Amino acid sequence: MQSEPVTKFDNQGIELGLRDLLLNALTVSSGAIDAISFLALGKVFSAFMTGNIVFFGLRVAGASHAPGGVAIFASVAAFAVGVYLSTRIVKVSKTPGIWSQRVTVALGVSLIPHAVFVVVWLACNGQPSTDIAHVLLGSWAMAMGMQSAAVRTLRVEGVFTTAATATIIFLVGDFANWSATVTERRRLAGVLVSLFVGATAGGLLLVHAHIYAASLPFVITVVTVATASIVLREKTTVG
Could you tell me the pTM of the whole model? Predict the structure, then answer.
């Protein structure tokens, strides 16, 4: 007895599922990055810009335990540059799809600052001076800016991969209206879990395998780019 052929709907479901897995992977990466940045690079984030703006306010207020102003500026400025570059690469397609090839290109370019971070981290044996820490913050923040802008063009509601506030709003808000589908709720919950997993993994590596901590986000992004390049070609169906 011959099996029934896979329908177009089935293919789209598989592609949407893979897209969500890749978004979760990128969220794990950003969670690890922020954990490592905060613990090892002067209590400043590379992806969570809301936290950095708050830190800057504390710095201006003269709070004694606020992070350094140069570190905060390096992260925020580099993130903005990353967003600008990625936006120029991706641009919003008039025909939104499951995963644009331009998103893959932008994530591929983000591997350059990722690689710079890994090389510099290894060169200083994972013990950067203050000045080197600023360079590392800038490298990772640029990569996170590029990732954020690229993912934004996918138009996946409530998913940003570098911040959880909006995701929590969408997920918890749905409990009041119950308007989202099971798949959408699973997607939003997956992002929150992924951020937690990434932060935990980054922290564990920093404590138990310090020198290898920086490799995790780089490897995750490489795998994401490679998978998207091979499996997710230009699609024209939104889900």
Answer: 0.90
